[in-house]
Write a structure and sequence with these properties.
709 residues; alpha+beta; 6-stranded antiparallel β-sheet; 5-stranded mixed β-sheet; 21 helices; 14% strand
Length: 709
């Protein structure tokens, strides 16, 4: 009886472990196959000592017990082999191989329930007398082939991997290797030698060896991570014990006390049901908090953490800020020294290479956000995940592998995961080392892979929306330029019709007078009328020159030739370009007198002439116009001042736009409204800007600066 109770407890522990493994990853092939293996193993253990429950077990009972034990052993070995294949490949085995192994295992299990494997077993005086079937040789062959085949797969995984999977494979290999070797000896070799089964019962106790090693690999190296399942299961059980139990007891007490009042019983039942619905969420939350403190305090819920990260992305308009906040949260939860997202300039539409994330320092998290011109690292884009010290990467060249591992080691990285969007590869997630110097956990890698996928979705949406927004802004700018061009053409037509009307009228009138009445005018009058005609032609030429100059600048065909330019001679040239009456009003000053400026002389002359002409036209004839150049540090400051009516701030903001002061053109009978617009175009070309200071009735001062020669 002691043997049966011991094996029953052992089987119960394995069944609990199978439940936790399945619950921790019911959609994972490894978890499903390993939990199924544990289920068959527990059932095989329970088949060890049922004959002790019967005083005199019959031959049929003992034979059925042995056949069932062999059936469970075959099923357990077959599922162990499938688990080993999946563990070696890191994913589900190929469909053809999976189907073939499953069919062979099912066929062998069916044969073990017939007399083909075990023909007859009798139990007498504590000894089993076994008569093997005609196909008994298939049983040890199957066990050796699939049992040791599974161990070979795990050994290959150990040899292939240099990361944490190596430690996991070592413990599985050690535990099951010892178990299978001893089991083959006690179940097959010894009974075959002595002709009776005296040692197979001890095999059921040997299951403690692989169970112990596997449990250690699960808890210490997080194989088939069941920690969340343990925590959640404890929370559910605690909720039932501390919350559900008292409610059931309370209901039982009230029912036994008030069983003669059915209406009161219904009311109490409804009240207890309402209390259960209202308080059960709070009780479960409290149990989860307690379970978090008792079991694996450093563990995180990857589903909740991924939800928190998604909430950060959706609540942050700028993806860069969202990446910084999300990586800081992940670094804190996973205990990483750094977590960086790198996006090459090809993906950011030539916005530079992004390097965004979090790095953990002694003072806490340090946010990183850099955008550099271009970088030539080998981690810009990867086709698959790369884990340091793990040879199972997608790289075919050993030189590439060594170079990549060296770069990762120099940068303190444990893994590099590709960030892929719905339509293209975007960048790489650079995963730093653990702060406790532990190896990277599969749970961490699975979560970081999901994070990379989620981040790729948000990054691609952000980049696409940013690109579309920039294209929309360009279209709006083009529309604005087209509208300005259309308005400019309209203004040109209006100005042309206005400005050309007066000189053409003068030309036409005096030309007709001289043609029809030439003899009636003396020589003085003829010269006077011809002077009017000449002035009108000059005015038309000036207007046409301004239009051609604006067109020339707007086409972008201007090329400047900077040269040292003495300002004293330049100012005298400007004064002499005006008529004597206007030139006498110009007061020029150069401080000091020998300073020179580095610029294009011809365009500076044109710029100053337009500013001086504007000052002359908008100031009284008795007032001077000041043209001054002054040295300040390495720059030369120019000042053009008049003493006219001035203007308010609203006018000053618009005077450099074309045709901005057409009302003054009517007033002064001269000007197209393009003079200051030409000044602005020249200033942009010379790399400077023109400022203006003015107040009503206080005159106006224009100023700008150029580098000293």
């Amino acid at each position: 009886m002691f043997e049966f109770i011991t094996t029953a407890l052992e089987a119960s522990v394995i069944l609990v472990l199978a439940f936790l493994v399945y619950r921790s990853g019911k959609y994972s092939f490894l978890n499903r196959s390993f939990s199924l293996f544990l289920l068959f193993l527990a059932t095989w253990i329970l088949c060890g000592f049922p004959h002790l429950l019967v005083t005199e077990p019959s031959t049929y009972f003992v034979t059925l017990e042995f056949r069932l034990a062999h059936c469970m052993a075959i099923l357990a070995t077959g599922t162990f082999f499938l688990f080993s294949l999946g563990f070696l490949r890191g994913r589900k085995p190929r469909h053809l191989l999976l189907t073939g192994v499953s069919l062979i295992t099912a066929l062998m299990a069916f044969c073990s329930l017939t007399d083909l494997i075990i023909k007859r077993v009798s139990y007498s005086e504590g000894r089993f007398l076994i008569t093997n079937g005609t196909m008994f040789a298939l049983f040890p062959a199957f066990m050796i082939l699939f049992g040791f085949g599974g161990l070979l797969c795990i050994a290959a995984k150990r040899h292939k991997s240099r990361s944490i999977d190596r430690a996991r494979a070592t413990y599985i290999l050690l535990g099951f290797g010892i178990f299978l070797a001893l089991a083959m000896t006690l179940v097959i070799l010894v009974p075959a030698i002595i002709g009776s089964d005296l040692t197979s019962d001890y095999t059921f106790f040997l299951v403690l060896i692989p169970t112990g090693f596997t449990a250690y690999a699960i808890l210490r190296h997080r194989l088939l991570d069941v920690r969340l399942a343990v925590r959640r299961s404890f929370a559910y059980i605690l909720t039932l014990l501390l919350f559900g139990g008292p409610l059931v007891l309370l209901y039982a007490v009230f029912r036994s006390s008030w069983n003669t009042h059915p209406n009161l019983e219904v009311g109490i039942s409804i009240f207890i049901l309402a209390m259960t619905v209202a308080l059960s969420p709070a009780a479960l939350r409290w149990s989860n908090k307690l379970a978090t403190k008792l079991f694996f305090a450093g563990l995180y819920d990857e589903i909740q953490l991924l939800h928190d990260v998604s909430s950060i992305f959706t609540s942050t308009a700028n993806i860069r800020e969202g990446l910084i906040e999300a990586t800081a949260l992940i670094c804190r939860r996973l205990g990483l020294e750094q977590l960086l997202v790198t996006i090459p300039h090809e993906t950011t539409h030539d916005d530079g290479d992004w390097l965004i994330g979090c790095r953990w320092t002694d003072a806490g998290p340090e946010c990183i956000q850099k955008a550099q011109a271009h970088s030539s690292g080998s981690l810009n884009l990867l086709d698959g995940a790369v884990i340091r010290d793990d040879s199972g990467t997608y790289l075919s060249s050993q030189d590439d592998y060594r170079a990549l591992m060296e770069e990762m080691e120099n940068r303190g990285l444990l893994a590099c995961l590709p960030i892929k969007g719905p339509t293209a590869d975007l960048g790489v997630l650079l995963v730093g080392e653990k702060r406790n110097r532990m190896a990277m956990d599969p749970l961490d890698l699975d979560f970081l892979t999901q994070f990379a996928e989620r981040a790729g979705l948000f990054i691609e949406n952000y980049l696409l929306s940013t690109y579309l927004l920039s294209q929309f802004e360009e279209l709006m700018d083009m529309r604005k330029q087209l509208e300005e061009s259309d308005r400019f053409k309209t203004d040109i037509i209006n100005v042309t019709s206005h400005e050309f009307r007066t000189p053409l009228t003068i030309l036409n009138g005096f030309a007709f007078m001289l043609r029809d009445h030439y003899e009636r005018f003396d020589e003085i009058e003829r010269k006077q009328y011809l002077g009017y005609i000449t002035n009108s032609c000059d005015r038309l030429g000036t207007i046409l020159d301004q239009f051609l100059t604006v067109s020339y600048f707007q086409r972008g065909e201007v090329r400047t030739t900077p040269e040292p330019t003495p300002l004293r001679d330049l100012f005298e040239e400007i004064k002499s370009s005006f008529v004597p009456e206007e030139g006498q009003r110009i007061e020029s000053e150069v401080v000091p007198g020998d300073i020179r400026v580095m610029t294009d002389r011809s365009y500076l002359v044109l710029m100053l002439k337009n500013l001086v002409d504007n000052a002359i036209r908008y100031s009284p004839q008795e007032q001077p116009v000041v043209l001054k150049a002054e040295e300040k540090g390495n720059d030369i400051f120019f000042y053009i001042r008049d003493f006219g009516q001035g203007m308010d701030s609203s006018e000053a903001d618009n005077i450099f736009t074309p045709f901005a002061r057409l009302e003054d053109t009517n007033k002064h009978h001269v000007g197209t409204g393009l003079g200051l617009y030409i000044v602005r175009l020249i200033a942009d070309m010379l790399g400077t800007s023109v400022g203006v200071e003015s107040r009503p009735h206080s005159g106006t001062t224009f100023f700008f600066k150029l580098p000293q020669a």
